[in-house]
Amino acid sequence: MVDRTLSALASAVCAADPRTTSQRRADALAALATGRVLACRCEQADCPARTHNTEDTPTPAGAKVVINVVAPADTVTGDGERPGYLEGYGVTDADQIRQLAADASQRLIKVEDTQTGRCATSSLRAWP
User: Considering only CA atoms, which of 75, 76, 96, 77 is closest in space to residue 86?
Assistant: First the structure.
Protein backbone atom coordinates (compact mmCIF):
# COMPACT_ATOMS: atom_id res chain seq x y z
CA MET A 1 0.00 0.00 0.00
CA VAL A 2 2.80 2.43 0.89
CA ASP A 3 4.76 1.49 -2.23
CA ARG A 4 1.79 2.21 -4.51
CA THR A 5 1.02 5.47 -2.71
CA LEU A 6 4.62 6.68 -3.06
CA SER A 7 4.62 5.75 -6.74
CA ALA A 8 1.36 7.64 -7.29
CA LEU A 9 2.66 10.74 -5.52
CA ALA A 10 6.01 10.57 -7.34
CA SER A 11 4.30 10.38 -10.72
CA ALA A 12 1.96 13.33 -10.01
CA VAL A 13 4.63 15.86 -11.03
CA CYS A 14 5.26 16.83 -14.66
CA ALA A 15 7.85 15.19 -16.92
CA ALA A 16 10.14 18.23 -16.61
CA ASP A 17 10.67 17.71 -12.86
CA PRO A 18 14.48 17.40 -12.51
CA ARG A 19 14.46 14.71 -9.80
CA THR A 20 15.01 11.03 -10.45
CA THR A 21 12.20 8.62 -9.67
CA SER A 22 14.02 7.57 -6.49
CA GLN A 23 14.39 11.19 -5.39
CA ARG A 24 10.72 11.89 -6.07
CA ARG A 25 9.70 8.80 -4.08
CA ALA A 26 11.86 9.93 -1.14
CA ASP A 27 10.34 13.40 -1.29
CA ALA A 28 6.89 11.80 -1.62
CA LEU A 29 7.46 9.97 1.67
CA ALA A 30 8.20 13.28 3.40
CA ALA A 31 5.12 14.85 1.77
CA LEU A 32 2.98 11.91 2.85
CA ALA A 33 4.26 12.10 6.43
CA THR A 34 3.46 15.81 6.67
CA GLY A 35 0.09 15.59 4.93
CA ARG A 36 1.16 17.47 1.81
CA VAL A 37 1.28 16.70 -1.90
CA LEU A 38 4.57 16.37 -3.72
CA ALA A 39 5.36 19.74 -5.34
CA CYS A 40 6.71 19.78 -8.88
CA ARG A 41 10.17 21.35 -9.16
CA CYS A 42 10.25 22.02 -12.89
CA GLU A 43 10.01 25.81 -12.35
CA GLN A 44 7.94 26.21 -15.53
CA ALA A 45 5.29 28.92 -15.21
CA ASP A 46 2.77 26.83 -17.16
CA CYS A 47 3.44 23.53 -15.38
CA PRO A 48 0.20 21.50 -15.36
CA ALA A 49 1.14 19.90 -12.03
CA ARG A 50 2.02 23.20 -10.37
CA THR A 51 -1.55 24.56 -10.41
CA HIS A 52 -2.70 21.97 -7.90
CA ASN A 53 0.53 20.47 -6.50
CA THR A 54 2.23 22.95 -4.21
CA GLU A 55 3.92 22.19 -0.92
CA ASP A 56 1.27 24.30 0.82
CA THR A 57 -1.58 22.21 -0.56
CA PRO A 58 -2.79 19.60 1.92
CA THR A 59 -3.43 16.12 0.63
CA PRO A 60 -6.97 14.81 0.50
CA ALA A 61 -8.01 12.94 3.63
CA GLY A 62 -6.13 9.68 3.17
CA ALA A 63 -4.99 7.91 0.08
CA LYS A 64 -7.34 5.38 -1.46
CA VAL A 65 -5.87 1.99 -2.21
CA VAL A 66 -7.60 -0.89 -3.93
CA ILE A 67 -6.44 -4.45 -3.44
CA ASN A 68 -7.75 -7.02 -5.88
CA VAL A 69 -8.16 -10.52 -4.50
CA VAL A 70 -9.45 -13.37 -6.63
CA ALA A 71 -10.54 -16.42 -4.67
CA PRO A 72 -13.15 -19.14 -4.67
CA ALA A 73 -16.32 -17.97 -2.94
CA ASP A 74 -16.15 -20.84 -0.44
CA THR A 75 -12.63 -19.77 0.59
CA VAL A 76 -13.79 -16.21 1.31
CA THR A 77 -16.77 -17.41 3.37
CA GLY A 78 -14.67 -19.90 5.34
CA ASP A 79 -16.21 -23.02 3.83
CA GLY A 80 -13.18 -23.91 1.70
CA GLU A 81 -9.40 -24.05 1.87
CA ARG A 82 -8.42 -23.42 -1.75
CA PRO A 83 -5.91 -20.59 -2.15
CA GLY A 84 -6.66 -17.31 -3.87
CA TYR A 85 -4.68 -14.83 -5.88
CA LEU A 86 -3.54 -11.46 -4.57
CA GLU A 87 -2.55 -8.98 -7.28
CA GLY A 88 1.15 -8.20 -7.05
CA TYR A 89 1.88 -11.13 -4.69
CA GLY A 90 0.58 -14.23 -6.44
CA VAL A 91 -1.06 -17.26 -4.88
CA THR A 92 -2.14 -16.62 -1.31
CA ASP A 93 -3.34 -19.16 1.26
CA ALA A 94 -6.99 -19.37 2.33
CA ASP A 95 -6.39 -17.91 5.80
CA GLN A 96 -4.80 -14.76 4.35
CA ILE A 97 -7.65 -14.41 1.83
CA ARG A 98 -10.22 -14.60 4.64
CA GLN A 99 -8.29 -12.06 6.72
CA LEU A 100 -8.17 -9.61 3.82
CA ALA A 101 -11.89 -10.07 3.22
CA ALA A 102 -12.69 -9.63 6.92
CA ASP A 103 -10.63 -6.44 7.20
CA ALA A 104 -11.97 -4.93 4.00
CA SER A 105 -14.59 -2.32 3.46
CA GLN A 106 -15.33 -4.50 0.52
CA ARG A 107 -17.31 -5.04 -2.57
CA LEU A 108 -17.58 -8.67 -3.57
CA ILE A 109 -18.08 -9.59 -7.19
CA LYS A 110 -18.96 -13.15 -8.11
CA VAL A 111 -17.47 -14.26 -11.39
CA GLU A 112 -18.41 -17.59 -12.95
CA ASP A 113 -15.87 -19.50 -15.01
CA THR A 114 -17.73 -20.38 -18.22
CA GLN A 115 -15.66 -23.53 -18.77
CA THR A 116 -15.98 -25.09 -15.31
CA GLY A 117 -19.14 -23.41 -14.01
CA ARG A 118 -17.34 -22.57 -10.76
CA CYS A 119 -17.79 -19.19 -9.12
CA ALA A 120 -14.97 -17.06 -7.80
CA THR A 121 -15.23 -13.97 -5.65
CA SER A 122 -13.17 -10.84 -6.08
CA SER A 123 -12.84 -8.75 -2.96
CA LEU A 124 -12.00 -5.10 -3.45
CA ARG A 125 -10.82 -2.93 -0.61
CA ALA A 126 -10.26 0.78 -0.40
CA TRP A 127 -8.42 2.02 2.66
CA PRO A 128 -9.37 5.54 3.74
Answer: 96
